[in-house]
């Protein structure tokens, strides 16, 4: 068969266009969590410039650091802005304080800072070490939401909270996912609010910790997205990686409350490169590279992209235990990428 040069060129241009679109879609789903618990971290301006130069389009901040917010102005980076657990009680108990928080940390920066989400509290658990904050989470969410709604930004800025996977009681098989009975009275009203406000639930999902806690039953390949075959059969669905199985167990847990549909945003995921079992440079490189590639494709239970925030931007040397110091994707001392892949 004879093919003209123009036909070949058109085909190449089409392939390039499809490749470019795929890259943009993938990069658009990935953000990075910017924690600041380190003694050797670059300035906030340097950190934001580093993200811009590496094509990072989304960021999670755990508190409204004013220098970081100033540096984010006109950066084009979409932001998940955190309300620290320590602020929950005052915001829950006083609408004026909630309004002041929103004015100071949101309205004074928006829209030059592209605030997309507000995460009210992080990993608050009614039966865990953070139980003292639990009763304040929903009223704090509601007061922040009302302050946002008063300015008619409720469709642009979604207000939610971030949970961890210890809330899940049953996770296997994923379709049988359910929340623990002792957290339902805490979570169900939050899910009801999220349905009402059309807001997603934020979830910190770490394949690493599930693997570390149960290496006899979970293979490293399954945890690192490198299994060549389906590992878990769940009816008509097949799971080749642990990340999808964990996320779908959360999807099922939400659905199984019967309250309504709620989307999930993965507000943290990562793998430590040192400091503990299976915490190696190579494992982290493989996990994050595969995660970045994977999140555009959805899970067996839910099609479509998975908005995901990698933890974290830098290694943070003030964190404990030792494992927690080694989640960064950049070296704080020289601002160089620790891993060869890009965003």
Automatic annotation (TrEMBL):
Please verify whether the record's keywords include Hydrolase: yes
The terms under GO molecular function for this entry are: glucan endo-1,3-beta-D-glucosidase activity
Q: Where is the signal peptide?
A: 1-28
**InterPro entries in UniProt:** GH, Glyco_hydro_17, Glyco_hydro_17_plant
Residue ranges of the TM segments: none
Q: Which reaction does it catalyse?
A: Hydrolysis of (1->3)-beta-D-glucosidic linkages in (1->3)-beta-D-glucans
**E.C. number:** 3.2.1.39
Coiled-coil intervals, chain numbering: none
Q: Name one Pfam family in it.
A: Glyco_hydro_17
SUPFAM superfamilies named in the record: (Trans)glycosidases (SSF51445)
The family database entries (PROSITE patterns) matched by this protein are listed as: GLYCOSYL_HYDROL_F17
Q: Name one GO biological process term.
A: carbohydrate metabolic process
Keywords in alphabetical order, please. Answer: Glycosidase, Hydrolase, Signal
Q: Which family, according to UniProt?
A: Belongs to the glycosyl hydrolase 17 family.
What is the protein's given name? glucan endo-1,3-beta-D-glucosidase
């Amino acid at each position: 068969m004879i093919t003209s040069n123009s036909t070949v060129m058109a085909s190449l241009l089409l392939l390039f266009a499809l490749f470019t679109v795929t890259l943009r879609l993938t990069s658009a789903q990935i953000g990075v969590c910017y924690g600041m618990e380190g003694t050797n971290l670059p300035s906030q301006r340097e950190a934001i410039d580093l993200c811009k130069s590496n094509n990072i389009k989304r960021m999670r901040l755990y508190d409204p650091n004013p220098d970081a917010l100033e540096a984010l102005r006109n950066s084009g980076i979409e932001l998940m802005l955190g309300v620290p657990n320590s602020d929950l009680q005052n915001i829950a108990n006083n609408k004026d304080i909630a309004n002041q928080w929103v004015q100071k940390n949101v309205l004074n920066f928006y829209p030059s800072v592209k605030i997309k989400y507000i995460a009210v509290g992080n990993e608050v658990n009614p039966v865990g070490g953070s139980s003292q904050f639990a009763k304040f989470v929903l009223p704090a969410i509601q007061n922040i939401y009302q302050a946002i709604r008063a300015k008619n930004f409720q469709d642009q800025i979604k207000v939610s909270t971030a949970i961890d996977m210890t809330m899940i009681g049953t996770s296997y098989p994923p379709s049988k996912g359910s929340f623990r009975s002792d957290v339902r009275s805490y979570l169900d009203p939050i899910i009801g609010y999220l349905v009402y406000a059309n807001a997603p639930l934020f979830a910190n999902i770490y394949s690493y910790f599930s693997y570390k806690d149960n290496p006899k039953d979970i293979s490293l390949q399954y945890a690192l997205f490198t299994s060549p075959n389906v590992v878990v059969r769940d009816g008509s669905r097949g799971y080749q990686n642990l990340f999808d199985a964990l996320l779908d167990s959360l999807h099922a847990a939400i659905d199984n409350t019967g309250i309504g549909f709620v989307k999930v945003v993965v507000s943290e995921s990562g793998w430590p490169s040192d400091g503990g079992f299976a915490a190696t440079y190579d494992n982290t490189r493989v996990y994050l590279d595969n995660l970045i590639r994977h999140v555009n494709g959805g899970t067996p239970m839910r099609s479509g992209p998975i908005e995901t925030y990698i933890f974290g931007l830098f290694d943070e040397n003030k964190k404990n235990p030792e494992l927690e110091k080694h989640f960064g994707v950049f070296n704080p001392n020289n601002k160089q990428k620790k891993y060869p892949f890009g965003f």
